[in-house]
Amino acid sequence: GPRIFSGVQPTGHLTLGNYLGAVRRWVEVDQHRGDALFCVVDLHALTVEHDPARVRRLSRQAATLLLAAGLDPERCTVFVQSQVDEHVRLSYLMECTASDGEMRRMIQYKEKTAEAARRGESVRLSLLTYPALMAADILAYGTQEVPVGADQTQHVELTRDLAVRFNQRYGETFVVPRATHPEVAARVMDLQDPTSKMGKSGQGRKTGVVYLLDEPDVVRKKVMRAMTDQGGDGGVVYERGARPGVANLLDVLAAFSGGEPGRLAEGYASYGALKKDVAEAVVEGLRPVRERHAELAADRGYVDAVLRGGAERARGMARPRVDAAYRAVGLLG
Ligand code: ATP
Ligand code: MG
Fold it and tell me: To which protein family does this belong (predicted)?
């Protein structure tokens, strides 16, 4: 099968967006089809204001959640980015391949820079160079497919550009990867602000974000209070542009129950009835993950052992290619 790589940042508690956009597919599809690696990308979490103890806690929690969601360490490699030095080693070569201008064009950089400015915080240089580290994460493993949410398309495009450029300058070294996305819910929106992506970091707006570990009643409350659009009396229609709130709920419902969002809409006469079904679908869909997480969280030795084994395997896979890249650019290596 294809070589597959993807990751999640320990910048906050994992959300419904992370699950539907990425993690669920890693579990259900990617680990079965390919030679897959899934990573808690903790170095990326240092690109924004962070609390060391919280990042450490969230890293372990994210890894535990990946296993709880169903990643099987016998089938794929689960590890933590900072435990494999090759990511940082290669990241520097990516910084030497990329231009300042193409980094500044990244939407995520612009958005997170604006957010920092609103909070009166300075922007870390590593936020700008983030895509170089992400390119290194992907390219170190000869990755062919990168299963991500729609918001990461631009970073994977840049990764492709860097791979092609490096290969042209220094000789064939990297595989040129491509992004893959789920058919529905590739971009889950914030329930209170359905024109913005549901995201785990950032402050406020928490009521618009469903976390994987939210209690069922909390999930129900958040969904029932989701912002819907004007004009619900005329029934429920699926219109991403004009009715983003309702479209988002229909996408989430479709992701859990199957079927097409536009067709599902036809079955509802009111927003209230739709929300009720969405709430139950999310509660039931996340229940096994939450329950398994509680079991695994009690067995820290097991999770740590999985991560140790994963890091060792990942290191072995990345080392030869990163060494080759070092030699290719003219370092003694
Ligand atoms: P942050 O706000 O710190 O960037 P995040 O919620 O965007 O957090 P990431 O760790 O950046 O989470 O992304 C992990 C994976 O989840 C990526 O593949 C990303 O595309 C996907 N993802 C994140 N948010 C969503 C969303 N709202 N809908 C679908 N996929 C998402
Ligand atoms: Mg993100």
Answer: Belongs to the class-I aminoacyl-tRNA synthetase family.
- Answer for the pair 278, 264: CB distance below 8 angstroms, yes or no: no
Q: Does ipTM top 0.95?
A: yes
Q: Helix 86-95 to helix 125-139 angle, to the nearest 10 degrees?
A: 110
- Segment 63-114, tens digit of pLDDT: 999 999 999 999 999 999 999 999 999 999 999 999 999 999 999 999 999 9
Question: In which domain, by residue range, is 306 found?
Answer: 3-182+300-328
Number of domains in the chain: 2
Instruction: Assess whether 143 and 13 both reside in one domain.
Output: yes
271, two tokens: 């927003």
Catalytic residue among 110, 200, 206, 275: 200
Annotated catalytic residue 200: yes
In a domain, 188, yes or no: no
145 φ/ψ angles, rounded to the nearest 5 degrees: -125, 140
Please, are residues 40 and 81 in contact by the beta-carbon 8 Å criterion? Answer: yes
Q: Is 222 a catalytic residue?
A: no
Q: Are residues 271 and 306 in the same domain?
A: no
Query: Residue 146 Cα, ligand 2 centroid: separation in angstroms?
Result: 14
* Active site annotation includes 197: yes
The protein residue with its alpha carbon nearest to ligand 1, atom 18, reads: 148
